[in-house]
Write a structure and sequence with these properties.
The chain has 519 residues and is of the alpha/beta class. The protein folds into three domains: 3-32 and 185-287, 3-Layer(aba) Sandwich (Rossmann fold); 56-178, no CATH class; 316-514, no CATH class. It is built from 20 helices and eleven strands. It has a five-stranded mixed beta sheet, sandwiched between helices. A two-stranded antiparallel ribbon has the order 6-7. The protein has a two-stranded antiparallel sheet with strand order 8-9. The longest helix has 29 residues, at 56-84.
Length: 519
């Protein structure tokens, strides 16, 4: 059978992504239309919502980001001249010197958005700081060469600060604009057994900002029984690498995601090489991704790629720096937000009877206990009636298994709904941070019934102080099931770094403003 004929036959066994199924959490997933059998010339997958060359996202976004960077340079230069009040010919160096530096760092500032779906402002903060720092030093050197007696270091520092702020602001604006455009969307095909493909697809569904549209998946043979209410059909026979490559060509997708069961199969090198030769993005998802996270170090030994897992080590000096950051930021935040805190107190008192603060016993570092503080967002007897609404938890399991989360919880007050929408009810935890019970960033603080469900290696989450924000919060909060939340906390502890904390703090702000997963 030819590869072309086989690919057409394989179309009959493509599965609709996230077909109607009642998951273990009780969540019903909406239906997507399954592909129809081919009759005559088949319409290219994805043509219904766009027709564009491969990697149009990268092609257009690189140019928009470059335009934003050039605009940042020009605006910073004009603001500097207006602020100082007089023009010097040497100031042109400040403008011209930045262009080659930005272009020289293009491999980090312009190309990662195309293949890294989750790339954003927090990830490029380090490279942008590096660019502006290099620019400042280069400007000082060039100005010293021009006239050693007149090196205007304050002007250089002002320009560098303006450039840093403008670069971050305009580049974030470009991404926000781009994610609303049709050309930003990438069609994807997930290849793998039904259970693994469904887990991948649900993550994509929770993050529309990634711009990955995976409406179908190709199930590999002999892997799973039926899942939920959806019948799982295997691909016809035992498809070869050529069959799968021909199928990808016919679908015309921008990205192929290979599930763990595929990546760990022997002899898949030809499939990977064939897919990369098509000029598309190929994502390899290893079976151990929930253990090591992103701390892998990829290098080579005589042409042999080697993935090294660095030793997990929480150095006391680094933890002291983390504590110093907690105290400094929490203290400044309490002072700066004091008017907002007072407004929340008044609104809660006027809205419903009961105390302003809600205290709950939580499990902290090394199995210690502490009283977590929150602004009360529910009626005063919320805990007493919790068992009566146990069946409303969209994660399933009632009040004892998993996390108890209810959309449109009837116990929430009018003011409480607003507080929860923007996470204002969490602000009293700044006091917990000053006390040392919590940190700005860390694992989610669990109640005792949740902590009892954490077993094995995942108990390592207790090695760090629980945090006000963390991986769970920035990736979707309540929308993420309990088992995935525990895995994220484990990855945070085993991959911890102070710079990682800074990036998570930066990523928290847009998540809070969008109200993602806030119920």
């Amino acid at each position: 059978m030819s590869a072309r004929a086989t690919s057409t036959e394989l179309q009959l066994h493509l599965q609709p992504a996230l077909a109607p199924s009642s998951t273990g959490s009780g969540t019903v997933i909406p239906d997507y239309p399954a592909p129809e059998p081919a009759r005559g010339p088949r319409r290219r997958y994805g043509e219904h919502h766009r027709s564009r060359p491969r990697d149009q996202r990268g092609h257009l976004l690189r140019r928009l980001l470059l335009a934003a960077d050039l605009a940042s340079l020009l605006v910073a230069f004009l603001v500097l001249e207006l602020a100082v009040g007089h023009f010097r010919s040497e100031d042109v160096v400040l403008l011209l010197l930045g262009i080659p530096l930005l272009i020289g760092h293009g491999h980090r500032l312009y190309h990662l958005d195309s293949h890294r779906a989750d790339y954003g402002a927090a990830d490029e903060l380090g490279p942008v700081v590096q660019v502006t720092t290099l620019w400042c030093w280069a400007a000082v050197v060039v100005l010293w060469v021009i006239d050693p007696s007149d090196v205007a270091i304050p002007r250089v520092a002002l320009f560098g600060g303006l450039l840093l702020v403008l670069l971050m602001a305009l580049r974030s604006g470009v991404r926000a604009f781009s994610r609303r455009q049709a050309w930003y969307l990438q069609d994807a095909l997930v290849i793998g057994p039904a259970s693994q493909a469904e887990a991948i697809l649900r993550k994509l569904e929770r993050h529309p900002e990634w711009g990955i549209h995976a409406a179908v998946y190709a199930a590999m043979p002999g892997c799973d029984p039926a899942i939920g209410n959806r019948r799982k059909d295997d691909l016809a026979g035992n498809p070869s690498d050529e069959d799968l490559i021909a199928l990808v060509k016919e679908l015309g997708v921008d990205r192929v995601m290979l599930a763990p069961a595929v990546t760990q199969q022997p002899g898949r090198a030809e499939l990977i090489c064939g897919l990369t030769d098509l000029g598309i993005h190929v994502d390899l998802i290893p079976s151990w991704s929930d253990v090591v996270g992103a701390r892998l170090d990829l290098h080579e030994m005589e042409g042999m790629p080697v993935l090294t897992i660095p030793r997990t080590e929480l150095r006391p000096s680094a933890l002291r720096l983390k504590r110093m950051l907690d105290i400094a930021v929490a203290s400044a935040a309490l002072v700066a937000l004091s008017p907002l805190l007072l407004a929340c107190v008044i609104a809660i008192k006027l809205d419903s009877p009961g105390p302003v603060l809600f205290r709950q016993r939580r499990v902290g570092r090394d199995d210690s206990f502490f009283a977590l503080l929150k602004f009360r967002s529910m009626c005063a007897d919320a805990e007493a009636i919790k068992d009566h609404i146990a069946d409303l938890s969209f994660h399933g399991g009632g009040t004892e298994n998993g996390m108890f989360k209810v959309r449109e919880d009837p116990r929430i007050t009018r003011v409480g709904a607003l507080l929860r929408r923007y996470s204002l009810d969490e602000l009293p935890q700044l006091v917990n941070i000053l006390r040392g019970d919590m940190s700005l960033v860390g694992p989610r603080p669990l109640i005792e019934s949740e902590d009892r469900q954490v077993e094995g290696r995942f108990r390592a989450r207790l090695g760090l102080t629980p945090g006000l924000t963390g991986l769970w919060q920035v990736h979707g909060r309540s929308d993420i099931p309990f088992d995935e939340m525990v895995s994220l906390d484990y990855l945070y502890v085993t991959n911890w770094s102070l710079w990682g904390d800074v990036k998570l703090i930066v990523r928290t702000f847009p998540t809070v403003m969008k109200g993602i997963g806030a119920y």
